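Example is below:
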Amino acid sequence: MSAHIYKKIEIVGSSQTSIEDAVNNAVAKAAESIRHIRWVEIVETRCHVEDQKIAYWQVTVKIGFTLDDN
């Protein structure tokens, strides 16, 4: 077994309902093209405001995944 080598990407997920859904949306989208996701680091949380109300949440995450052994 080789040592695990990780790669990390940064993406922003959004949701109209919650911070947790924004993170889940980001991970689900990343999982469409990335295998072996191992961890998620929440980097930044913010929300978009329209008409003096929160319209949607935005969460910047770093997603770590292991690289394939060749």
User: Anything to note?
Assistant: The chain has one helix and three strands.
